[in-house]
Here is the input.
Amino acid sequence: MINLARKFTAFRSNEGTYKKTKLEAVIPSLFGVKTMDEVSTIIRVDFIPDEVAFKLPIETFRLANKGDAVAIMIVQEMGRAQGQYAASIVKHLGMEKEKLPLVLIGSLFGTNNPYLIDPYIDEVRRIAKKAFTIIPNFPPVKGAYLLAVDAMVGVASSL
Here is the structure.
């Protein structure tokens, strides 16, 4: 999730201490207010509402796709962070030298957004040079179903 309290980019854009971003105009509307100052008051007093937490990444991706430099930076940072998590697991399992499939599933990777996917892959490949990507053309639940069928065939043939 894109965390407003950590990013501050729209607030800094609003006060003129960082690059301008269209997030500065979008975020208040997500909170149902008109200004970033009002947003600041809301998140200082209360948590970010679930509905806003859900919509904020969607809007950030939308603005990144329209070329907003700050939104692009945020999405790239998300990709790097996800890649670092995956690389940590690869390293922990000692699979750095393996020809490793990176199966890009889930709602984030389903965006097919290069601002997210490229930094993700780069981070994993820093640890696992032979890693390669697989983008399935069916939903994860179908893959789970196929794995279950394979497991059942193996069980049935051993009876």
Summary: The beta strands are 101-103, 132-134. The chain has one domain: 4-157.
